[in-house]
Specification:
Blueprint: E1 7-9, E2 12-15, E3 17-18, E4 28-29, H1 31-43, E5 47-48, H2 51-56, E6 63-70, H3 73-86, E7 91-94, H4 119-127, E8 131-132, H5 147-165, E9 171-173, H6 181-189, E10 194-197, E11 205-208, E12 213-216, E13 218-219, H7 226-234, H8 237-281
Parallel strand pairs: 2-6, 2-13, 3-4, 5-6, 6-7, 7-8, 9-10, 10-12
Antiparallel strand pairs: 1-11, 11-12
This protein binds zinc ion (ZN).
Length: 282
């Protein structure tokens, strides 16, 4: 595969939950499955590092980054011990206002609530060499926010993580995996050096812009065998098939954005009516 001067092939994998209990979605893996992924990747010579470290490792082809969006507690419970055993570190992206709470932000149609890590669990990851990036304050779809709210999501989440954990936060992970040029430039303005995305059209590539990196990651799904994960990193024709699957799933996931946005708009309209009602009564 040819690479443009400002482009690097980069093995960055995206996980969400690592859960022993059945879930209807596809963005989770079981602890057993996760272990199989790590074992096969390790046997194939790969080693996991934080995303910031990976971007600094020019020329090394066997370093990869495992990233965990939303910082679910199941990652702390299952992925963290497994990766520690392998001697790997990884990156986790908490949603600041949901640290230590459940995933009420999610327009989950099936009503299942999952816990997010709390501050002490995040602190333990930091102490073990994990990288913590930001996933915003509220998991809102950033491109639809006005300038003030967008700035708050980017800067407020960075400041809160840095304050609470005593670290520098350099990587931002865009909720729903998408960011327009406006969101990207605001993120770099806010001091991030890299923005992680999950768009269907490309994966396994990092683009260097003047202000920082834009990293296109591979999504890992419930149906992924260890060989499927390895195939994404080692190339070949199957890579193209995975790109197509990711493109389709990414389009379907956009439904989650519409559900969340619809709910927020609905609540805003209801509270508007309530105010009018109170005004009429008063
Ligand atoms: Zn997310």
């Amino acid at each position: 595969m040819t690479t443009a001067p400002n482009e690097r092939q980069l093995g960055v994998l995206t996980y969400h939950t690592v859960e022993p209990h059945f879930d209807l979605g596809i963005t989770w893996v079981t602890p057993r499955q996760f272990r199989q992924h790590v074992e096969l990747l390790a046997q194939s010579g790969f080693r996991g590092v934080g995303i910031g470290e990976l971007l600094h490792l020019e020329g090394e082809t066997k370093a990869i980054a495992l990233t965990f969006d939303d910082a679910y507690q199941s990652v702390y419970e299952w992925a963290f011990p497994c990766l520690s055993e392998a001697g790997w570190t990884a990156t986790v992206f908490p949603i600041v206002e949901y640290v230590g709470r459940d995933n009420r932000w999610d327009g989950n149609l099936f009503g299942r609530r999952l816990a997010h890590m709390d501050w002490s669990e995040l602190r333990e990851l930091v102490d073990s060499g994990w990288e913590i990036g930001s996933h915003g304050l509220t998991h809102s779809y950033l491109d639809w926010l006005d300038a003030n709210r967008l700035r708050r999501e980017l800067r407020g989440s960075k400041a809160a993580l840095e304050d609470r954990l005593g670290i520098e936060v350099r990587t931002f992970c865009a909720p729903y995996g998408r960011a327009s040029p406006r969101v990207l430039s605001e993120a770099f303005e806010a001091g991030y050096r890299a923005v992680c995305l999950l768009q269907g059209g490309s994966a396994g590539v990092a683009h260097r812009l003047d202000a920082g990196w834009v990293v296109q990651r591979w999504a890992i799904y419930r149906l992924d065998s260890a060989r499927g994960v390895l195939a994404r990193l080692t190339g070949g024709r199957r890579r193209r098939a995975w790109l197509w699957i990711q493109r389709i799933v990414s389009a379907a996931n956009f439904g989650g954005v519409l559900v969340q946005c619809g709910r927020e708009k609905g609540l805003a309209i209801l509270s508007g009516f309530a105010k009018i009602g109170r005004g009429a009564a008063g």
